[in-house]
Amino acid sequence: MIYHINRVSMKPSATAEQVEAALQSWRNQGQTIRAVKSYVVGRDLGGDYEYSAVFAVEDLDGLFEYLTHPTTYETDHLGLSLVERLDIFDVSDDNDPELNAKIQELHRRRNALNPEIASMLADVPTYKGAGVDD
């Protein structure tokens, strides 16, 4: 299993309605993307972020389906401009020593397929994680 985790803090200018719409868009991803086996969206408790979303997928194919699904792109368009801080990472019980490199390559492929999203990620004031080369 791969657990794809997004942690965010919103810009002070983000309205409550905009934040709720972004959270609902994350929930929509969990409900509509076939590769997502389970998910949780909500407040980030005990950390430095306001909200988090965790999506469980079975394997790399499932992760790529999640990354390139139209509802994921919809969430990017809706929410990335609202985000002050973003941390994206993955956790897995797969012991493949090359798994991180494979996951990073999926993010690079996703961004090559949709350069607008890569640009939006690069515009997030504080971004840590996969998807944008240094």
UniProtKB/TrEMBL annotation:
Source species, domain of life: Bacteria
Regions that span the bilayer: none
Pfam families for this protein: Dabb
Record domain Stress-response A/B barrel: where: 2-91
PROSITE patterns xref list: S_R_A_B_BARREL (PS51502)
Alphabetized InterPro entries for the sequence: Dabb (IPR013097), Dimeric_a/b-barrel (IPR011008)
Official protein name in the record: Dabb family protein
The organism of origin for this protein: Nocardioides endophyticus
